[in-house]
Design goal:
With 302 residues, this protein is mostly helical. Among the domains are: 68-127, no CATH class; 223-289, no CATH class. 41% of the residues lie in helices and 0% in strands. It is built from 17 helices and no strands. α3 (69-75) packs across α4 (77-86). The chain is elongated, with a radius of gyration of 43 Å. The chain starts with a helix and ends in an 11-residue tail after the last helix. The relative contact order is 0.04. It binds heme C (12 copies). The site of one heme C (HEC) has 15 residues, from α11.
Length: 302
C-alpha cells in the first residue's frame, strides 16, 4: 500500500514538473518577432552562391609549426605563468630545454632521464659540492632567495672562497665575526656599518666607510686623495685644529695629499725638490730644524 501511494505521489509531482517545464519552454520560444523585422528579412536578397572553382579547404591544407611557449601554455598554464612572472633569464623557448617531452613512461620510470639537465647549459656551476641544482633553484623560477640560517651559514665559504680567504689573510676583528652575523636574514643582504658602529664624524655614509675600510679587511686602510680634513680630524683633533688655525701655506694642502697612506710620513723633497744649496742641507738634514712645524709653518706674515 505504502509504496503504491508513494509512486502515485511521485508521478503526480513529475507530471507537474513536466507541465511547468513545457510552459516555460514554450514561453521562451514564443516571443514574437516584430512585424517589420520579418518584412525586412523577407526582402533580403538571397546569398550569392559560392564560386564554382574554389574547392572546400582540406583540414590538412596547412603547414605544421612547432608549438610556441604560449601554445604549450594552453595545457601547461601554471608552468607558463610561473615562467612569465618569475622566470627571469629562463624566459626561453620551452623546447630549448625540453628537447624531449611527452615521453614519460611510468613503466620505464624514465622521468629523470627525459627532463632537461642544468649542466647541459651551465656546467657544474658552483663546483662539486652543489650538484643537486633543483634543491635551491626551481627550473621555471631559477632566481633563488636562499634563507640565511644556521644550516646555510656553514656553506658561504664554499661558494665565496675568495671572501673567506681575504678575511683569513688580513686578520682583523671582522675575521671573528660570522658571515651570517653581517649578511643576515636573506642571501645577498649587505649590512650598513652603522648597525654595529658609530661613524667617526657626523654625516658619514657607508660609502665613506668603505672608501677607507674594505669590509672584509677593515684594517687595510686606504683613502682617496680628496678625503676631507675633518674626517682625519675626528681622531687627530690637535693636528687638525693646528692646521686650521695656521697662516702657513700648508693650510692649502689636504692631509690626504701629504699622508697618501695612513701613518705614512712624507718626505719634504717629494714636493719641494732641493730648495736650498747643498751645503745648507748637508749641515741641516732635517728641514724642520729651521721650518719648525710642518702643520704650522712659520710664515712671513706672522
Ligand atoms: C631552463 C630550462 C627550462 C625551460 C625554459 C622550461 N622548462 Fe619545464 N622543466 C625544466 C626542468 C629541469 C624540469 C624538471 C623538474 C623536475 O625534475 O621535476 C621541468 C619540468 C617541466 C614539467 C613537469 C613538471 C612540472 O612542473 O609540471 C612540465 C610540464 C614542464 N617543465 C613544462 C614546461 C613548459 C610548458 C615550458 C615553457 C612554457 C617549460 N617547461 C620551460 C626546465 C625547463
Ligand atoms: C594539448 C595539451 C598539451 C600541450 C599543447 C602540451 N602538453 Fe605537455 N603535457 C600534457 C599532458 C596532458 C601531460 C601529462 C600530464 C601532466 O604531466 O600534466 C603533459 C606532460 C608534459 C611534460 C611532463 C611529462 C613528459 O612526458 O614530458 C612535459 C615536460 C611537457 N608536457 C612539456 C610540454 C611542452 C614543452 C609543450 C609545448 C612544446 C607541451 N608540453 C604542450 C598536455 C599538453
Ligand atoms: C637550454 C639551456 C639551459 C638549461 C638547460 C638551463 N638553463 Fe639556466 N640559464 C640559461 C640561460 C641562457 C640563462 C641566462 C644566462 C645569462 O644571461 O647570463 C640562464 C640563467 C640561469 C640563472 C640566472 C637566472 C636569472 O634570472 O638571472 C639561474 C639561477 C639558472 N639559469 C639556473 C639553472 C638551473 C638550476 C637549471 C636546471 C634546472 C638550468 N638553469 C637549466 C640556460 C639554461
Ligand atoms: C645550496 C643552494 C644552491 C645549489 C645547490 C645550487 N645553487 Fe645556483 N645559486 C645559488 C645561489 C644562492 C645563487 C645566487 C644568486 C641567487 O640568489 O639566485 C645561485 C646562482 C646561480 C646562477 C646565476 C648566477 C648569477 O649570475 O646570478 C646559476 C646559473 C646557477 N646558480 C646555477 C646552478 C646550477 C647549474 C646548479 C647545479 C649544478 C646550482 N646552481 C646549484 C644557490 C644554489
Ligand atoms: C651555492 C653557492 C652559494 C652559496 C652557498 C652562497 N652564495 Fe652568496 N652568492 C652566490 C652567487 C652565485 C652570487 C652572485 C654572484 C656573485 O656576486 O658572486 C652570490 C652573491 C652574494 C652576495 C653579494 C650580493 C650583492 O649584492 O653583491 C653576498 C653578500 C653573498 N652572496 C653572501 C653569502 C653568504 C653570507 C652566504 C652564506 C650564508 C652565501 N652567500 C652563500 C652563491 C652562493
Ligand atoms: C663585518 C661584517 C661582514 C662580515 C663578517 C662579512 N661580510 Fe661580506 N660584506 C660586508 C659588507 C659591508 C659588504 C659590502 C662591501 C662593498 O660594497 O664593498 C660585503 C660584501 C660581500 C660580498 C659581495 C662583494 C664581494 O666582495 O664579493 C660577498 C660575496 C660577501 N660579502 C660574502 C661574505 C662571506 C662569505 C663572509 C664570511 C666568510 C662575509 N662576507 C663576512 C660585510 C661583512
Ligand atoms: C654585524 C656587526 C658589524 C658590522 C655590520 C660591521 N662591523 Fe666592524 N666590527 C664588528 C665587531 C664585533 C668588531 C670588533 C669589536 C669592536 O671593535 O667594536 C668590529 C671591528 C671593526 C674594526 C676594527 C677592526 C680591528 O681589528 O681592530 C673596523 C675598522 C670596523 N669594524 C669597520 C667596519 C666597517 C667599515 C663596517 C662596514 C663596512 C663594519 N665594520 C661593519 C662588527 C661589525
Ligand atoms: C678617512 C678614512 C676613514 C674613514 C672614512 C672611516 N674610517 Fe674608520 N678608521 C680609520 C682609521 C685610520 C682608523 C684607525 C685605525 C688604526 O687604529 O690604525 C679607523 C678605525 C675604525 C674603527 C676601529 C675602532 C676605532 O674607533 O678606532 C672602526 C670600528 C671604524 N674605523 C669604523 C668606521 C666606520 C663605521 C666608518 C664610516 C662611518 C669609518 N670607520 C670611516 C679611517 C677611516
Ligand atoms: C678612527 C681614528 C683615525 C682616523 C679617522 C684617522 N687616523 Fe690617523 N691614526 C689613528 C691612530 C689610532 C693612529 C696611531 C697613533 C699612534 O700610533 O700613536 C694613527 C696614526 C696616524 C699617523 C702616524 C702618526 C705617527 O706618529 O707616526 C698619521 C700620519 C695619520 N694617522 C694620519 C691620518 C690622516 C691623514 C687621516 C685622514 C685621512 C687619519 N690619520 C685618520 C687614528 C685615526
Ligand atoms: C704638507 C704636508 C702635510 C700636511 C698637509 C699634513 N701633514 Fe701631517 N705630517 C707631515 C709630516 C712631514 C709629518 C712628520 C712631522 C715630523 O716628523 O715631526 C707629519 C706628521 C703627522 C702626524 C704625527 C705627528 C703629530 O704631529 O702628531 C699626524 C698625526 C699627522 N701628521 C696628521 C695630519 C693631519 C690630520 C693632517 C690634516 C689635518 C695633516 N697631518 C696634514 C706632513 C703633512
Ligand atoms: C704634498 C706636497 C708637500 C709636501 C710633502 C711638503 N710640502 Fe711644503 N708646500 C707644499 C705646497 C703646495 C706649498 C705651497 C706652495 C706655494 O703656494 O707656493 C708648500 C709650501 C711650503 C713652504 C713655504 C711656506 C710659506 O708659507 O711660504 C715651506 C717652507 C714648506 N712648504 C716646507 C715644507 C717642509 C719643510 C716639508 C717637509 C717637512 C714640506 N714642505 C712638505 C707642498 C708640500
Ligand atoms: C738652515 C735653515 C733651513 C733649512 C735646514 C731648510 N730651510 Fe727652507 N728656508 C729657510 C729659510 C730661512 C727660508 C726663507 C724663509 C722665507 O723666505 O720666509 C726658507 C724657504 C723655504 C721654502 C720657501 C721657498 C720659497 O720660494 O718661498 C721652502 C719650500 C723650503 N724652505 C723648503 C725646505 C726644505 C724642503 C728643507 C729640507 C730639505 C728646508 N727648507 C731646509 C731655511 C731653511
Amino acid at each position: 500500500m505504502k509504496t503504491r501511494k508513494k509512486v502515485m505521489v511521485l508521478s503526480g509531482i513529475l507530471m507537474l514538473v513536466l507541465v511547468a517545464l513545457f510552459s516555460c519552454a514554450s514561453q521562451q520560444v514564443a516571443p514574437e518577432k516584430p512585424q517589420e523585422m520579418q518584412v525586412a528579412q523577407a526582402e533580403q536578397p538571397a546569398a550569392p552562391p559560392p564560386p564554382k572553382e574554389e574547392k572546400p579547404k582540406s583540414l590538412y591544407d596547412a603547414d605544421v609549426k612547432p608549438l610556441a611557449p604560449a601554445e604549450c601554455g594552453r595545457c601547461h598554464y601554471s608552468v607558463f605563468s610561473q615562467i612569465k612572472n618569475e622566470g627571469g633569464k629562463h624566459k626561453l623557448d620551452c623546447t630549448q630545454c625540453h628537447t624531449k617531452y611527452h615521453a614519460y613512461n611510468p613503466v620505464k620510470q624514465n622521468w629523470a632521464e627525459i627532463m632537461p639537465k642544468c649542466e647541459t647549459c651551465h656546467g657544474v656551476f658552483h663546483g662539486q659540492k652543489f650538484t643537486a641544482c633543483t634543491q635551491c633553484h626551481a627550473p621555471h623560477a631559477p632566481k633563488t632567495q636562499i634563507a640565511v640560517n644556521a644550516e646555510t651559514a656553514k656553506t658561504c665559504g664554499d661558494c665565496h672562497g675568495k671572501v673567506a680567504q681575504t678575511l683569513q689573510q688580513s686578520p682583523s676583528k671582522h675575521t671573528k665575526v660570522a658571515c651570517a652575523t653581517c649578511h643576515h636574514s636573506k642571501h645577498g643582504l649587505i649590512p650598513s656599518c652603522m648597525t654595529c658602529h658609530k661613524p667617526h664624524t657626523a654625516n658619514q655614509t657607508d660609502k665613506d666607510c668603505l672608501a677607507c675600510h674594505p669590509a672584509h679587511s677593515p684594517l687595510t686602510i686606504a683613502y682617496p686623495k680628496d678625503t676631507a680634513n675633518s674626517v682625519c680630524g675626528a681622531c687627530h683633533g690637535a693636528v687638525y685644529k693646528k692646521l686650521e688655525a695656521s697662516t702657513g701655506k700648508h693650510k692649502q694642502v689636504p692631509c690626504a695629499q701629504c699622508h697618501t697612506k695612513h701613518r705614512l710620513i712624507p718626505k719634504c723633497q717629494e714636493c719641494h725638490g732641493q730648495p736650498h744649496g747643498e751645503v745648507v742641507l748637508k749641515k741641516f738634514p732635517d728641514c724642520l730644524a729651521c721650518h719648525v712645524d710642518v702643520h704650522d709653518l712659520p710664515s712671513k706674515s706672522k
